[in-house]
User: Fold this.
Amino acid sequence: MRPLAARLLAEPRTRYLPPNEPATTVARRSVLAAKAPLRRIYEEWYEELAARLPGGPGAVLELGSGPGFLAERIPGLVTSEVFVCGGLRAALDARALPFRAGALRGILMTDVFHHVSDAGRFLREASRVLRPGGRIVMVEPWVTPWSRFVYGRLHHEPFDPEAEDWTFPPGGPLSAANGALPWIVFARDRERLARELPALRVVDVALRLPFRYLFSGGLTVRALLPEAAFGLLARAETRLGPRACKRWAMFARIVVERI
Assistant:
C-alpha cells in the first residue's frame, strides 16, 4: 500500500488506474486539459520541439503521443503510442519503426526516450528512417545534483545514472524506465554514441528548470500551488538562467541530427 501522503496527493482522475493501460493514457488527457499551468509548460516544450524541426520533405513522427496535444501544433503529425490508443494514428515499437529508409524529417518525443528499453536499437532505427538533415528532438529527464535527489528519492520511476549499458529490463511499457538514460547516452557516453552511430550528431542540449513542473504536480499528482502563483515561478526560472540550470535542472531539450 502506498504511503498516506502519496494517496492524498495523487491526481484523482488517475489515482486508481494501472499505469500501463491505455485507459490511463486517455484519462491523463483530461488531466493535462484541466491543469492550465501544466498545459502551458507542454505548450512551451512543444514550441521548442516544432521550432527545431527541419523543413523540406518527409513526415514527422511523434513517439509516445499519449495524453499530449502536439498534433494541434504540427499539421500531419504521425502520432503514435506503444499500444492501441484512441485518437492516435499508429501503435508501434520505437525499436522497430515501420518506415522506409529516409522517409522522415523528424522524430519528436516528450518524456519517452527514457522508457525505451534498448536505446541503441532505437537510435539505429532512427538513423535509418531519418533523411539526411532530419532530426530527433526530445524533452527528457536529465541528471543534476537536484534531479538525483528528486528522481532518486521521490519519483516512482527507476533512475540509475550509474547504469553501464543503454538498456534496462523489460516491463510495463510506461512503468519500465531509467530516467537517467538520456543523460547517459547524450552526455556521459557521447563519445560512444559518436563511435557507434556516426551518422547521428548531437546538435544541442539545453537544460530546463523544474520548479513550475514540480508544483504543477505533473500528470500524477495534484497541483501544489494555486494557478496565480505560476507566473511568479516562470519569472524566477527566467532570472536564474543557465548557471542555476547546471545544479537545479530536471529536464533537457535534446536535438540530434542525421548527418
Notes: The first strand starts at residue 59 and ends at 63. The chain has one domain: 4-258.
